[in-house]
Design goal:
Elements (H helix, E strand, L loop, with lengths): L10 E3 L2 E3 L44 E6 L4 E8 L18 E4 L9 E6 L3 E2 L2 E2 L13 E6 L4 E13 L5 H5 L5 E13 L3 E16 L1
Parallel strand pairs: 4-5, 6-11
Antiparallel strand pairs: 1-2, 3-4, 3-9, 5-6, 7-8, 9-10, 10-12, 11-12
């Protein structure tokens, strides 16, 4: 349920600092039906990019909302930090309408991989990113910012990774362009362990609206 990718604390790889987060395997999940999961055709391999050219980086500004029109997401964003154990602190579980962005990393629209995370469900039903696994390449993700501009990202692909083989370098590694990762839990569920992995949407900045 909690949308935290695998790992435990920030690591340094060469000159790049990689944000490595931990998947909290909380045993909720929905009693009827599972959230949609990506299919093979939706997968992305490393730094693969869509055909739509990228846009120049924007100045830093606080993200306030995330919108994914193709799956009906329109949610406020809150800043997220790391707990004492180095894991990302997820949004409050009871706020099913709320997603969060890692405030210690790049802001959406600036150079690098901005990280947005949210719950897929809680004990009572679906949460903000329940439908994230059904996003298709070419869809847009709009990030409304405090400077009254919208960073528009185009989805390159969507992947589901098991917690035991989460590709930290692919998801968190330094990039030379403005990119976005939108993350929630997925990859199957058991009552004993909770969700077994993470759904990750990869996108790159393609325009900025004022």
């Amino acid at each position: 349920m909690a949308a935290e990718p695998t790992g435990s604390r920030p690591r340094r790889l060469g000159a790049a600092v990689l944000l490595v987060l931990g998947l909290a395997l909380i045993s909720h999940g929905l009693p009827a039906g599972a959230p949609p999961q990506p299919i093979a055709a939706d997968s992305v391999d490393g730094a693969a990019l869509a055909d739509i050219p990228g846009a120049p980086a924007m100045p830093a500004a606080t993200p306030e909302r995330i919108r994914i029109p193709s799956i009906g997401i329109d949610a406020p964003l809150t800043g997220l930090g790391l707990g004492p154990d180095g894991r990302l602190t997820p949004p409050p579980e009871d706020r099913t309408d709320l997603a969060g962005w890692y405030a210690g990393g790049p802001a959406p629209g600036t150079t690098g991989p901005a990280i947005i995370a949210g719950h897929v469900d809680n004990a009572h039903g679906p949460s903000v990113f329940y439908g994230l696994g059904s996003v298709q390449p070419g869809a847009t993700v709009d990030i409304v910012r405090s400077d009254h501009r919208t960073a528009v990202f185009t989805v390159d692909g969507v992947e589901v990774y098991p917690a035991t083989a989460f590709p930290d370098r692919v998801v968190y590694g330094r990039t030379s362009n403005p990119e976005l990762r939108v993350i929630t839990c997925g990859g199957g569920y058991t009552k004993a362990t909770g969700y077994l992995g993470n759904v990750v949407v990869f996108a790159h900045l393609t325009s900025s609206d004022s």
